[in-house]
Structures are given as C-alpha cells and as structure tokens.
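Hi C.,

You asked whether I'd gotten around to modeling the 334-residue construct. I have! Everything is below, sequence then structure, no commentary in between.
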Amino acid sequence: MDELNQHPPASESKESATNTTELLHEQEHDSIYNDEHNSIYRNERDFAHNHERELVRNHEREKAEVRKKFLKIGGVVALVLVGLFTLPIPLGSIKVVGSDKVTVQDVEVAGDIGEPVNILRINRETLRNRLSKDLRVEDAQISYELPLTMVIRIAERKGISVIPAQFGYLTLDKNGQVIASDSVIEDTTVPMISGVKGGNILLGDVVTDKPIVQVLDYLRALDDDTFKQIAEVNIGDPDNILVYTVSGIQIRLGDGTNLKDKAELTAAMLKDLPETQGKVEYIDVNPSSPYIKTDRITVQPKSNKNNKSKPDTSQSDKTDTSKQNDNTSKSKQD
C-alpha cells in the first residue's frame, strides 16, 4: 500500500498532467484575449482622441481662414472708403431746388467744393452754415437722393420793402437787413418806404432807424392778400404815417403804436371797400374810431359797427385831408 501511495499509477499521472496543461492553455488563452481586448480598446480610445483633436485643429484652421478672408475684405473696403473720402475722385452730383437765384456754381463756391465733385467729401453742416451767410438764402436743407445726388433745398430770403438810398435803392427783408442794392427798383412787388433816404448803408447791414422798423412791423403783420395791395408807406412825418394802395387809396396809420391792430383793420377795411358808397378819399385805421371817408358818407368797418358813426359834414376832415395830400406830394417830390 505504501508503495502504491508513493508511486501512483501512470494513468492518473497522465491525467493530472493533461489537466494541468489544459489549465495552462486556458490561462494563456485568457491572457491573450485580455491583451487583445485591451489593445483594441486602447486603439479605439486613441483613435477617438486623435479624431477629436483633428476635428479641433480643422475647426481652428477654418476659423483662421475665415478671419483672414474678413481681414482681407475689410482691408479692401477700408482702402476704398479712404480713397473715396480723401482722393479727388468724381462721385455723385449736386442739385439745387427752391431757388432761381442760387445755382450749383454758387453752392460750390460757398462750400469751397473743388472739381471733380465728390459728395462724400462734402461736410453738410459746414456747407449749410456757409450758405446761410449768403444774403439771398434764408435757410438751406441738405439731403441725399438715389443713386448719388446731394439735394440742396433753398428757402430764399425775400424782400419786404424798398427804401431810397444815396445811389439807388435798397431792398430790406423782414428783419430790416439789406439784401440787395440796385440803381433802379428791381422788385416792384414790395412796397417802397418813402419820406426817408438811407444813408451810408451797405449790403448785409441791418437798418435800425425807428420809423423804418415800425413800418416793417406793420408790413409783417399784414396777410398776403393785403400786403400785395400796398404800394407805398410814407414816413415823412413819423407821427402821421401814410400808406398808399396800388389803386391810390390813402390809409392813415397815425403814429407807430398798435401796429398789429392797425394791420388787421387795414385788411378788414380794404375788404369793405366794394360795399362803400361814393369815391373813397382815405381810410383811417385808428383802433379807437376807424372809418372810411368817401365823398358822400363816412363808413365805419363792420368790425366796429357798435361805435357811433362819424359825421360826414366835418370841415376839419376835409382840411386835414388836403394837408395830408400836400404833405404826401411834397414827400414824393423829395
């Protein structure tokens, strides 16, 4: 028995060796499988990582290319704009509307605009300020029209009266500024202020003589229709201002007070003339008792019909009328 235990049968030894060999093979196979699996996992992980890095690099390259393109385009645009705003390149045109007196050439001279015209190089505010110094221009508005046109809308400074001067006639605007000087009266659509002669007054000067300023206040207060009917204002006697219509009717203003009220009465009473009986001798626009004096009756305006009528037989009125006519004739001769 001891010999049997010490020396087992050969078949058992072979079986044991076979099992050991198989176990070793299985372990070796498992080890090889694990190694291969780990290798495949590492390769996949490395591939994904490398792919991600490649995508990031490609994205960065694309962004860099886009930036380069924008920089190139921006550089070209900047160069073009710099050239357009600084170089004497002909671009666009200028158009003047609202005035027959101010021309495109006048605008170019006022704005110091050289040839060729490039509207992008013109400073609108500077041009507007320079045009406002032109005595013919009251206001100038500048805008643009397609395709490339600068439009300058001119509001002309209009004359409101003419006064005789030492060597001709001066045209005044509503503010009393001299906007024209001519040897003869060029604008016959505005009233002449007679009974006074302008002294050393130059273009651009503002008249400050009180009677003239008062007449300008009166003329400004008239509506357009009434203004067109006024031909002359005589201020030979500042306390007895006389107005003459284009049809020769005399309007007595008196002194230079309440001129707005007197302008309103002038308009109302001239509208009443067609209904007046007889030949009109004069109109008195004294706000306290306005009336129309004719050779037959004395008529009060409708707006003042609650006041008592003036008697028609006043000899003093007739005497006063003759004095006024004599004074007027003398001032016209002067």
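If it helps when you're writing up: Residues 306-334 have pLDDT under 50 and may be disordered.

Thanks,
B.
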